[in-house]
């Protein structure tokens, strides 16, 4: 996995350098970038095939999200691109852009890293709650955008086909020509970015903008609190599971040692067991050795 990550980093570095126009016009760099692109594509394709054949159920492997992402990142690596100066991106520039999906292969580190696995599990468990909160926020956002459209637009210029508004008594073209412009403004406001390219000038439009800013605060607070609480619970659960596993390993090791000592004790006691089944004590063994020594001395005296 470390080598695969290094290959991803190599591809990412080359992919980033390839965006510089001073490198794109150089034929030697285009050849290097093409070779690196093809080599990494072949490596990832071989790895994908090996994963496919080693998976217990190949049909299930095909429909995994990371498998499809890997496939979308591998296929554009085998497509020929034009490197002419008139079309520096090539005729299939969007297909080429899909190669950046190879960076998502780093998510496979979750199979080996406990921390990344806990984070992925946290996002998976928080997904439903975040979707519910975001759905409520989107409903408020849509309502605010429709209200802003009617608050900012005063009249329709039939000749030029455009909406007009009054900005401090001066009639001008409204930047909110349809509700999609309002949605763009709403997303910029809710996410607290605030580009300032579209701004309401009417009193009611500014009131609606204030409510939209308040909604933006909840947009940041709710998902953050949900993810942080879920992550804390998952981290505590992981540590509890780790402690239980360590306790089970210690208990298993203790039971194994006790079993070994029992077997050694049984083997040691076999030397003291009599043929009739009665065990002999150390004193009986010693007296028997003394009798045998006395009998041998008597025999020597007779001789």
Strand order of the largest sheet: 1-2-3
Query: pLDDT under 50 segments (min length 5)?
Result: 277-283, 299-303
How confident overall, as mean pLDDT?
78
How much helix, percentage-wise, in residues? 55-70%
First and last CA, distance: 87 Å
- Quickly count the helices: 10
Overall form = flat
Radius of gyration: 39 Å
Task: Specify the structural class.
Answer: mainly alpha
- Report the biggest beta sheet as strand number plus sense, adding barrel if it closes: 3 strands, antiparallel
Strand content: under 5%
Return the string of H and E elements: HHHHHHHEEEHHH
Overall strand count: 3
Your description of this structure?
With 303 residues, the protein is mainly alpha-helical. The chain is built from ten helices and three strands; from the N terminus they run αααααααβββααα. The chain has a three-stranded antiparallel β-sheet, with no helix packed on it. Strand 1 and strand 2 form a beta hairpin. The radius of gyration is 39 Å and the shape is flat. The C terminus is likely disordered.
Helix and strand layout, with pairings?
Blueprint: H1 2-17, H2 21-24, H3 27-54, H4 58-62, H5 65-74, H6 93-97, H7 114-152, E1 155-157, E2 162-167, E3 170-173, H8 179-190, H9 203-269, H10 282-302
Antiparallel strand pairs: 1-2, 2-3
Helix pairs in contact: 1-3, 3-5, 7-8, 7-9
């Amino acid at each position: 996995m470390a080598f695969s990550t290094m290959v991803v980093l190599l591809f990412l570095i080359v992919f980033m350098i390839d965006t510089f126009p001073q490198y794109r016009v150089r034929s030697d760099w285009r050849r290097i970038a093409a070779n690196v692109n093809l080599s990494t594509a072949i490596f990832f394709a071989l790895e994908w095939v090996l994963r496919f054949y080693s998976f217990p159920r190949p049909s299930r492997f095909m429909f995994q999200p990371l498998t499809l992402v890997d496939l979308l990142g591998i296929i554009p690596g085998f497509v020929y691109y034009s490197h002419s100066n008139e079309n520096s991106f090539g005729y299939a520039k969007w297909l080429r852009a899909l190669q950046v999906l190879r960076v998502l292969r780093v998510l496979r580190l979750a199979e080996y890293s406990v921390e990344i696995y806990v984070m992925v599990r946290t996002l998976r468990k928080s997904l439903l709650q975040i979707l519910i909160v975001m759905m409520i926020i989107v409903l408020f956002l849509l309502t605010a955008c429709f209200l802003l459209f009617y608050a900012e637009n005063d009249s329709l210029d039939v000749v030029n086909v455009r909406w007009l508004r009054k900005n401090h008594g001066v009639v001008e073209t409204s930047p909110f020509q349809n509700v999609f412009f309002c949605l763009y403004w709403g997303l910029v406001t809710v996410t607290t970015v605030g580009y300032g390219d579209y701004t309401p000038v009417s009193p009611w439009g500014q009131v609606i903008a204030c409510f939209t800013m308040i909604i933006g605060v909840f947009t940041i607070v709710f998902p953050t609190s949900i993810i942080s609480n879920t992550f804390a619970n998952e981290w505590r659960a992981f540590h509890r599971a780790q402690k239980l596993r360590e306790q089970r390993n210690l208990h298993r090791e203790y039971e194994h040692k006790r079993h070994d000592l029992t077997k050694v004790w049984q083997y040691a006691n076999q030397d003291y067991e009599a043929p009739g089944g009665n065990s002999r004590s150390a004193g009986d063994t010693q007296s028997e050795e003394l009798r045998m020594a006395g009998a041998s001395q008597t025999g020597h005296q007779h001789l």
